[in-house]
Amino acid sequence: AKGEGRNNFQFYTPQMDENADKRLLLETSLRKALDNDEFCVYYQPKVDVVTKSITAMEALLRWKHPKLGLVSPAEFIPLAEETGLIIPIGEWVLRSACRQNRAWLSQGLPRMRVAVNLSGFQFQQKNLLEMITAVLEDTGLDADLLELEITESVIMQNPDFAVSVLNSLRDIGIHISIDDFGTGYSSLAHLKRFSVNTLKIDKSFVRDVEISSADAAITTAIIAMGNSLNLKVIAEGVETEGQLSFLSENKCDEVQGFLFSTPMPAAQVAEFLQEHRRD
Ligand code: C2E
Ligand code: CA
Ligand code: CA
Ligand code: CA
């Protein structure tokens, strides 16, 4: 920092050094993670509030770094997006999830969708539809057993573009959910143009739904909006019986959260389904 002047010096802290080091380490190792087989996919069930059946399993990416241990997707997905690595990584997740759902079917598990999170970068790729079609063909999974979760903010970045991409996905029979719904400023006017199946209420509203009248109002408004547009509504981050009762009384269709299951490795899903049927 010597010779760079006082103004630069004041920004310099050991904490920043550590962050920059970690970032560099993450970025270098993220490039090798796919080849080194360090990723795996966990699955978290979506539960029908009325029938209690499992409608889908959401694929959530996990990175087992050889030195740092388990790295959270909240930490490495943004890095993957900045570096463009999200494109090969996202395709890998999609392929793994479709292959896994096909395997569950051949094991005799009940039909359910597999839901894959789609990054905004993937959503903007010109060859998105071709990539997905190829994965479905390669893995032999029916399109109606695949669901894509796309965040409201990604869709709202360019609503006109989103309409055409969502239409093309709908046309091949894929189920679409708007993820983190309530955080991205959709109006009813926009919503009715989007060919989507489900609104997913963000867990930030679900958390305090019993104690915050604002969160309760937002949650019931989203459910009412979904119902009036003939969309399914799911709530994420459901952790307590109290939250479940609130959602059930207000006619939310599906729920997902630690109350039912934390995300689990694929190998535990068959056992979970058996346990769940006995409950
Ligand atoms: P998301 O799609 O909104 O996923 C929900 C997050 O909430 C997951 O965190 C999940 O493990 C967590 N969660 C589930 N139930 C509960 C609950 O009852 N309480 C609380 N507090 N949390 C709960 P996770 O797995 O760490 O993923 C974080 C985010 O990383 C995801 O948010 C998603 O945006 C992104 N992500 C994960 N996997 C992928 C992927 O394959 N592709 C892309 N593009 N993004 C991914
Ligand atoms: Ca999601
Ligand atoms: Ca969320
Ligand atoms: Ca049980």
From TrEMBL:
Sequence ranges assigned to domain EAL in this UniProt record: 23-277
The protein's name in its UniProt record: Diguanylate cyclase
Organism: Geobacter pickeringii
